[in-house]
Amino acid sequence: MDIVTHAISGALIAYALPQRPKVRFGILFFALAACVPDLDILFCTTPALFLNLHRGISHSIFVAPLLALLLALLAYPLRRASTPQAFSLRTLWLLSLVCLLVHIALDCITTYGTMIFLPFSDFRVRLNAVFIVDVFLTLPLLVLFCICAFKRIGCRKIACAGLVWMVLYPGLCLALSSWAGHSLAGNLRAQGRTIHELVLLPDFFTPLYWRALYVEEQDGHNVEQEQSISGLGSPRGPACAHTPLSREEILNLSAQSAICRDFFDLMLMPVVRPLSEHHRKAALTALSFLPMDTQGQDTARQSSAGTGHVMHPIADHVARELKFLLVYDLRFGSGLTLGRKLLGSRPRANIPFRLMVVLDRDNTVLLERIVFSDARKDSGWKSPTPPAPQTFGQWLLGLH
């Protein structure tokens, strides 16, 4: 969920209280407390850390009580004896915990996935109820917050109405999603089509529009279809076909590379397509710095730093045997023309999460690169690092 919605949720919690400490930054504290879990982004300095930390340990329901205690200790003016209507430490801890849990709940209703059970499980909770920036959720909350900010009397009831809307709206979206999904599945079965998996995702202006992703069997092959549908499940135009990445390919890549393993933990329904010519040339250049034997096959899994940056040009017949793949998730997109235009207007508009790999004829990973365009994270081309056993410190922080 976007940071504005998180901040407003904390502010409305403060306005809903029967009384609060008479300090100027009281409302601001609650707004900031509701945003604290997203400070994990400050530590996501590499793509690998982004995969492990974002919506990771800071969003855990088991860490939230400790984080709430830290916030309560830091907010000394709110519990200072000389402050009128001061909170006790216990009350301040409890209210901070509520702000954190509301943040976690708002993230869970989106499609990204939130690891709320860390460090005991890295399962990502995603309810697919609302779009990452949902105007029908955020705009009413923003209006109610502005009324509370400028109205001196009766703001508690208004704030409570906002908190109720934060519960009712996602529930309504989940109900409509179930209805639309069953309607679409019934239409597909009536057409005699074989569907193995169907996931309904929120689109811009949910619940008026949804995106359906489903795997369909066609002539003995699986094809992943992307279909824009109305709020009641009626198809909007033709579906777009994509090539899904098979379970065997996912397991193979994950077994060879820690980055690939973490990437697929985030993905919902990954698809694959060939790399562009530009990226192929860049990959071949990077591959040229790896040591090659006399047959022109890669024989080492070490970075170019270990070769003294000596270039070994790739023979044409070797290059023709390599596989250059681009893997991404259809979850991050829109079936609406306006939605695609809005996504295309982003400062670094591109597929948000991209994994690029180079494999030899034996499906061995030679090079990998992971790019998160919106977060400005790019690993660059490098040799894969095999998954390693998790240390206790990594387990405690929710890291692989």
From TrEMBL:
<dbReference type="InterPro" id="IPR007404">
    <property type="entry name" value="YdjM-like"/>
</dbReference>
<keyword id="KW-0472">Membrane</keyword>
<dbReference type="Pfam" id="PF04307">
    <property type="entry name" value="YdjM"/>
</dbReference>
<dbReference type="GO" id="GO:0016787">
    <property type="term" value="F:hydrolase activity"/>
</dbReference>
<keyword id="KW-1133">Transmembrane helix</keyword>
<feature type="transmembrane region" description="Helical">
    <location>
        <begin position="57"/>
        <end position="79"/>
    </location>
</feature>
<feature type="transmembrane region" description="Helical">
    <location>
        <begin position="162"/>
        <end position="181"/>
    </location>
</feature>
<feature type="transmembrane region" description="Helical">
    <location>
        <begin position="27"/>
        <end position="51"/>
    </location>
</feature>
<protein>
    <submittedName>
        <fullName>Metal-dependent hydrolase</fullName>
    </submittedName>
</protein>
<feature type="transmembrane region" description="Helical">
    <location>
        <begin position="91"/>
        <end position="117"/>
    </location>
</feature>
<keyword id="KW-0378">Hydrolase</keyword>
<feature type="transmembrane region" description="Helical">
    <location>
        <begin position="129"/>
        <end position="150"/>
    </location>
</feature>
<keyword id="KW-0812">Transmembrane</keyword>
<dbReference type="InterPro" id="IPR053170">
    <property type="entry name" value="Transcription_regulator"/>
</dbReference>
